[in-house]
TrEMBL record:
Catalytic activity: heme b + 2 H(+) = protoporphyrin IX + Fe(2+)
Cofactor: how and how many bound: Binds 1 heme b (iron(II)-protoporphyrin IX) group non-covalently per subunit.
Protein's cellular compartments: Cell envelope
Domain Dyp-type peroxidase C-terminal: 240-422
Family: Belongs to the DyP-type peroxidase family.
Protein name, entry field: Deferrochelatase
Biased composition (Low complexity): 17-31
NCBIfam families: Dyp_perox_fam, tat_substr_1
Cofactor: heme b
Entry keyword 4Fe-4S: no
Enzyme class of the recorded protein, top EC level: oxidoreductase
Record region (Disordered): 1-35, 229-260, 308-327
All residue ranges annotated as the Dyp-type peroxidase N-terminal domain in the record: 85-229
């Protein structure tokens, strides 16, 4: 997770009844169903900027007299068209769905192009607060965009299925095996990948249903995972989020303000292959946390495993969350203050030849298993210009001696090529599928 700010606490939401009465009256006057976008315009909100990384801009018309304004959570809007796809640099979202699809038997390049065209149109509409073009379910009819993002990518197998092997990037070669992997192949990889994120659960679910319905006979769901993060405004001030182990997670994430951010996270405009210009590669891992074992550890041992204080995320060498970690500092007995196998030490870019990735994950909880143990953990999502220089060297080092390894289990994995953003009038992946 990035060192990204959770948006400031929101103003209290207006009573639902007032909004319902207003919109019902407007709909009745015209005799037509009100779209989400029209509802958003009627509700109104002052312009604001949300998201520490992506800067999702919001600007709406002034509300008519007596209209009930949307809260800032509902009014947040990310842009579909742009240099990069949405859902990469925006701030963490409260709700997420990760879905992989396989093309149906007999479906190829033509069907894939038509599907990406449908998905792109649906994403553009829903991210603007409009209903989907076909058979909208109405699930999100009362809500604004709620910072909804949809992101699309291609798996290694997609290129053989569509006759585009010559366009498959070398960076998409399968990830190596790691000794800590316990991967379920049925929940790994896939021809196509979709990431959905929003700050409202119904808005996110609405987008999920629209994407699944748009797939039609062209593709079928291979796997789906559902996640969550802290809700916007849940803390008194912006702060780095926590994972399900209770640890502040994401302090040293690369920041868009850094001079080498684009070089480390995005494929250059003149990179290879050409259709991946301004795109990125995403590694997705379902990492189960063995919470019962973890929670039995005394606080001091938990902090030694991570290398940071649990209370505020500061390094054990002292200071605040953002203080530089002193890897050479020792205690009175000559022992390293930050243990040599502490997770925070091993994952530092300066300990991995500069390898860096933008982590933007979701937590998950899929219930209690037959042994009474929570099936919960992290949907690890990381972005980089080249996974062989980002994810792979860091994971190899973790595999050799991370103190956190006994408390986590990698259960699913995927690697996807995520092309650059679609320009006005284009769909995502058009340069690949029609090039």
């Amino acid at each position: 997770m990035a060192d990204q700010s959770i948006p400031q606490a929101r103003t209290p939401e207006a009573p639902r009844g007032a909004a319902t009465a207003q919109t019902a009256g407007t709909a009745g006057a015209t005799g037509k169903r009100m779209s989400r976008r029209r509802l958003l315009g009627t509700a109104g909100a002052t312009g604001l900027v949300l998201g520490a990384a992506g800067g999702a801009a919001v600007g709406h018309a002034a509300a008519p007299a007596g209209a009930t304004p949307l809260t800032s959570v509902g009014a947040g809007r990310a842009m579909f068209h742009g240099k990069h796809q949405p859902g990469i640099t925006e701030g963490l979202q409260a709700r997420g769905h990760l879905v992989a699809f396989d093309l149906a038997p007999g479906a190829g390049r033509k069907e894939a192009a038509a599907l990406l065209r449908r998905w792109s149109d649906t994403a553009r509409r829903l991210m603007a607060g409009e209903p989907s073009a076909q058979d909208d379910t109405g699930v999100a009819l009362d809500a604004g965009p709620s910072s909804l993002t949809l992101t699309f990518g291609f798996g290694h197998s997609f290129f053989a299925r569509t006759g585009l092997e010559g366009q498959r990037p070398a960076a998409l070669d399968p990830l190596p095996d790691f000794s800590s992997d316990r991967l379920d192949k049925t929940r790994s990889n896939g021809d196509l990948w979709v990431q959905i994120g929003a700050d409202d659960a119904l808005v996110a679910f609405h987008a999920l249903r629209a994407v699944q319905k748009d797939a039609g006979s062209a593709a079928r769901v291979r796997w789906q995972m559902n996640g969550f993060n802290r809700s916007p405004g849940a803390t008194a001030h912006p702060m780095t989020t926590r994972n399900l182990m209770g640890q502040v997670d994401g302090t040293r994430n690369p920041k868009p303000s850094e001079s080498d951010f684009d070089r480390r996270i995005f494929v250059p405009e003149k990179g290879e292959p050409a259709w991946m210009a301004n795109g990125s590669y995403v590694v997705v891992r379902r990492i189960r946390m063995l919470l019962d074992d973890w929670e039995r550890l005394p606080l001091e041992e938990q902090e030694n495993v991570i290398g940071r204080r649990k209370s505020d995320g500061a390094p054990l060498s002292g200071g605040t969350e953002t203080s530089e970690m002193d890897l050479e500092k020792t205690d009175a007995e000559g022992n390293l203050v930050v243990p040599f196998n502490a997770h925070a030490r091993i994952t530092r870019p300066d300990q991995n030849g500069g390898a860096a990735m933008l982590r933007r994950p979701f937590s998950y909880h899929d219930g209690i298993d037959a042994d009474g143990v929570p099936d919960a953990g992290l949907l690890f999502v990381c972005w980089q210009a080249d996974p062989l220089r980002g994810f792979v060297p860091v994971q190899r080092k973790l595999d050799r001696g991370d103190a956190l390894t006994p408390f986590v289990r990698h259960e699913a994995s995927g690697l996807f090529a995520v092309p650059g953003g679609a320009a006005e009038g284009e769909y995502v992946g058009q340069r690949l599928l029609e090039g």
